[in-house]
Each structure stands twice: as C-alpha cells, then as structure tokens.
Amino acid sequence: MTASATADVVIVGGGVAGGLLALALRELGAVVTVVDAPAPAGLSSASALSYGALPGWPLAPTPLARLAAGASRRWRLLQGRHGDLGWRPCRLRVHGGGSSLGALSARLPLPFARVDTAVLAARLPPVLAAADVSCLAGQVDSLEPHPSSGWQLQFRDGTSLQAPQLVLAAGAHCRQLWPALPPRLRSSWAAVLELACNPALPGPAVAWLPARFGRVELERRAAGLGQPEWLVDGGLVPRGTGALLGQHTLVRPGLELGAPPPPAEVERQLRRSLADQAWAAALAQLPGRLHQAPVAFCSGGVPLVGPVVAAPGLWVFTGFSAGFSQVPVLAPLVAQALGAAGARADWARRRLQQLGLGWPDQRGADRGT
Ligand SMILES: Cc1cc2nc3c(=O)[nH]c(=O)nc-3n(C[C@H](O)[C@H](O)[C@H](O)COP(=O)(O)OP(=O)(O)OC[C@H]3O[C@@H](n4cnc5c(N)ncnc54)[C@H](O)[C@@H]3O)c2cc1C
Q: Is there a contact between 9 and 339 (Cβ–Cβ < 8 Å)?
C-alpha cells in the first residue's frame, strides 16, 4: 500500500539528529514526519548509547567547535519548552597522563554538562508527539525520486511513503540509503558496558573521561586504514540509575559498515584494556551488560550537513564527531535553510557556509574533499 505523506518534510532517523531537527522544524510551523527503525536485538542507536558529554569549551579552533561549545544553552532552552530531555550540569574529572586539563579538572569545576541518554531515549518520543511530529516505526529499505515531485520511501514491510522533502538522519545507515554520499562519511562500531549501579567514583554527578579520546584520532586515520583497528577509551558516566563504562571502537577499512563484531570478543578486549588502566582496574571486574551501536563519523571531523546536490529535495544531517554538542546548535540553522522562506533561509545557508559546512555548493564535498 502506498501512503502519501501529508508532511512538508520526512526525516529518516529518530536519534538525537532526527529528533532535534524535527523539533526545530516544528518551531517554524513545518509539518514533519520522523521515520525510525527499532534497533535489532542486541544493538542500540549511537544516541541511546552515548556518553552525552557536553564540554563548555571548543574542542578545535574552528567556528563550528566554538558554536558547539555553547550547546548547553540550546539544551536548556529545549528543556524549558519541552520538559526534561536529560540535560544535566555535571562535574568533570579527567584522567590520562598528567594532562593540564586533568590537573585543572581536579582543582576547578570546568564548564561541563551531559545529556543522560536514558532520559533522552525515554522522553524524546512523547516530546515529539506533544510537538505534533508524526512518528512512524519502520525500516526504510530504499529511496527513489517520485515521478511527479519529491521522494518515495520504500519500507521493509512493502509499504511506501511519499515525501516532498527528505532528510537522511539515519546515522551509520545513511550510506545504505544513498550510496553516493561523499567518502569522508564513514562508520564504526562502538560498544560500552552498562553497569546497573553507578560506582560513583568520585561522586554520583561526575563524569570521568580521558584527556584525549583515542577514537577521535582513529577516525581521522580511517581513510588510510589497511586493516580493521580497534581501541578502548576509558570513561565512566552516570546513565539513568546506573552508569556507562569504557568505550570500544572498531573502525574497518572502506565505506561499508559491515556486521557488528562478536560481542564476547569485544567485551573481553574492553575489560582487558580497562584493567590495564590504573583508575579503572577495579571497575573492569564489575558485572555489566555490553551494548553495541553503529556510529557515523566524518574522517575530517566536519559533519555532513546540507542538500545532496545531485538529488533535489534530498538532504543529509549526519557524520557528527560530537553529536550532542553539534546537533542542537545546527538543527535550528538546517531547519531554517530547509523550512523557512526567502531572506531567513538565505541567512541560514550563509551561516552554515561560514561554519565550514558544505553549503550551498556541495560539489567539493561530494568529491570527498
Ligand atoms: C559510546 C559512545 C559515546 C559517545 N559519546 C559522546 C559524547 O560524549 N558526546 C557527544 O557529543 N557525542 C558522543 N557520541 C556520539 C553521538 O552519540 C553521536 O554523534 C550521535 O548520537 C549521532 O546521532 P544520530 O541521530 O546522527 O545517529 P543515531 O543515534 O545512530 O540515530 C540514527 C537513527 O536512524 C535510525 N535508522 C537507521 N537506518 C534506518 C532506516 N533504514 N530506516 C529507518 N530508521 C533508520 C536508527 O534506528 C537510529 O535510531 C558517542 C557515541 C557513542 C557510541
């Protein structure tokens, strides 16, 4: 059966990117549908598994990083409008080789917050419903330009949906839906241990993070990898009534996501690496449940945001290196570029371009530069 969308915009993906973009479009009065596939057994979405860390300082000397450092302001504003989304002020403690950030974090409360992803995952569906966003549960298998205008989404169950404008916010699955996306968009497998109780070291509202995430370096080297590489970053963050411990990252050469790595082997690697880190040695033995998620990233660190030039009406919003900081500040700009008219849309497009995003001419990005 073919359904005709009454929406102005259909978003594929209901993680933090799709969810916050839908809310930003609703603020402009657009009619929005979000389509999200339930995660297969044993897997989560990146958004549900994230540490949700929000450093209040730029992580790089770029205009986008400076803007993203203010993400907490936007989360607070969203919570003011929609109720609790999991944003919390949080004390940061940094471990890792006598870094200046580590020394500073031991002395001063650094400007830091986090989004509790257990709260976000529970609250986002009712918040979207209350904002009049239509949410459909279903796996989109393919996209085709509609013969008259817009796009046609084909679902796994055989049904289809028509979309005047379509945004891919499907994280690591965007490429399966539109293989011609630039090669800088890549994917990895992440895994964390979920602890039922927070071991609260050194306090319940404290995130314990490495001074440098090895994951970021590995993502930068992704295009040159000749064989799969994995590493473990040590971290402990509160989540719900428990905590997330450690972060295992597997990056494979090439552009295909591939199957998740065997969970028993990933858990062994994760626990062994944590046991080798003095601060986490005791934690590495705690009972916990392993969760895995596919993650999209861009090898140059700049997310893939904007229209796909070769496919009118198709947009992409993915590949974030720090989605919980970048998405809330970019979603309102993308919503204006997509859903507003005239001068407001032009202003948003210019602003996105100033931030180094592929706008309005993505031909360079489409060649993978
Ligand atoms: C362990 C870990 C720790 C992290 N820590 C941080 C951190 O501290 N701070 C930070 O800012 N970022 C962090 N990140 C990164 C952050 O989680 C991601 O940048 C962000 O969640 C990406 O969100 P997204 O909505 O783009 O993608 P996703 O969360 O992957 O959402 C994509 C959604 O699309 C749906 N989907 C996919 N394919 C289809 C389809 N064909 N049809 C329908 N639906 C589909 C999926 O089911 C999913 O719900 C972390 C990630 C991980 C894994």
A: yes
